[in-house]
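S.,

As promised, the protoporphyrin IX containing FE run. Input:
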Amino acid sequence: MSALMKLVILVPCCFFLVALIKFLYNYLWTPLRIQHMMNSQGIKGPPYRFIHGNNNQVTRMKVEASTKPMSLTRHDIFPRVQPHVHSWLNTYGKNYLSWNGVQAELVISEPELVREVLKNSKKAFLKPKPTLLGSKLLGKGLVMVEGENWVKQRKLANFAFHGQSLKQNMIPEVVASVETMLERWKGQEEKEMEVYQEFRLLTAEVISRTAFGSSYLEGEKIFTMLDKLSILVIRDIFKTRIPFISKLWKTADLVESEQLQKGIQDCVMEIIMKREDKDLVDECKTFYLAGQGNVNSLLGWTVLLLSIHGDWQEKARREVFEMFGNQNPHPEGIAKLKTMSMIMNETLRLYGPSNGLYRRVGREVQLEKLVLPANIHLVALNIALHNDPQLWGDDVHLFKPERFAQGIAKATNHNAAAFFPFGLGTRSCVGMTFATTEAKIALSMILQRYTMTLSPAYVHKPVLLITYKPQHGIQVIFEALHKDA
Ligand code: HEM
Ligand SMILES: *[C@@H]1O[C@H](CO)[C@@H](O)[C@H](O)[C@H]1NC(C)=O
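Predicted complex:
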């Protein structure tokens, strides 16, 4: 054989061998090493399976759980919406290791560890790198960025959401948006109304007016595209990526997501051009994505809970009339609505939209009781903490806003990391005051006009679709308080 022939055979062989070794290193050696390292520190979990990790088990358990009926007296949604997590917490303990494909995920629900991670000040924990599709959704918006970019953007956002600008710029826009919604409701009294969709329109209108400075109609095209894109991104998360092949051609989802991204960019630019501030595209998208669905969820579940708990609905209404009479809500009063705040906190505890805070370990880090290897992901599971009878008592699954009557510390038995619907530490929600203010205004204005009861048509099926959503909406019957109103 000539030297050239040998080369022609040998070179591809070498390439193949190197690729194979790399493949086995990433998909076998590294996961097993991480698993061993965590096991030896007492952290157990479902074993790693080649390439797929635990994804097949997750899919199977989710399908099974989604067929089980749910009652409306015990609000125990955790085993239904995250059956795999619920079951593994019971089997392996409050902190366990699982595998999203080849990615190690350390799920944590022990308050001390959650606090240690979320309040870590040494930048040991970063936001996970977005998937290819995910980066199209959030771009370089505040939720995703790190370091100096984050500091800069967070400062701007803090300013935009601070007391004075909230009062002057946002509250009037929210009131106007709620009025638009209530206008739509006129003549619908005593008929069944699907409020989840109503609150989708309301929350999108609020973001339109406050972030985009336009009306819902102008924003509608953008929102529809963003909603479609988020569905693609979520679908992508539990897909196992087959190595090499995913690099060779674009999936249909990827092609569609690129078109959506371009469409969104163009539409947002068009609106923003009018305002002459072109750096805002990602931030406007971020505020829509971070804000709209979460407030939608909070409003929907609060109205559901008030519809079945007439006593709390009456207490909330009494407080609203004492504070505002028949007038529109004003900033001083909104801040003082205590009963409403208790009700909203109890709703956030039982149906909070966040399904865990994700972090990535940068370099190997030494914690008080654990050493964590680089690049594993952590999931601080608020749903687990919010449903833990050891923290909240045996009535943990009941709707009892009175547990917040003496404040958070008392409700959680002085456990600082037991309740964090808006996150904890430096990366906690920048829109918290905005969100609670928006919800309080909407609820106050509804309570001033209507009593509400749940329609017999309602079926209780919360599903995890970014937030926890009612699968078939929430059907409520409104009755006007004053027939001439
Ligand atoms: C009930 C409503 C809301 C809930 C429950 C909620 C929850 C959260 C949570 C848990 C985080 C922390 C995520 C993490 O640590 O990984 C967060 C961050 C964030 N939220 Fe909210 N949110 C709500 C409404 C809003 C609204 C209305 C906006 C803006 C208009 C907003 C904007 C943001 C932003 C920009 C971040 C990232 C902050 C940063 O990384 O510095 N949120 N939110
Ligand atoms: C509700 O929770 C928030 C934090 O999420 C807290 O600031 C507020 O004081 C709570 N309200 C009540 C009445 O417990």
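The longest helix spans residues 3-39. The pocket of protoporphyrin IX containing FE (ligand 1) is lined by residues 142-143, 154, 286-287, 290-291, 294-295, 298, 352-354, 357, 421-423, 427-431, 434-435 (CB under 6 Å).

- D.
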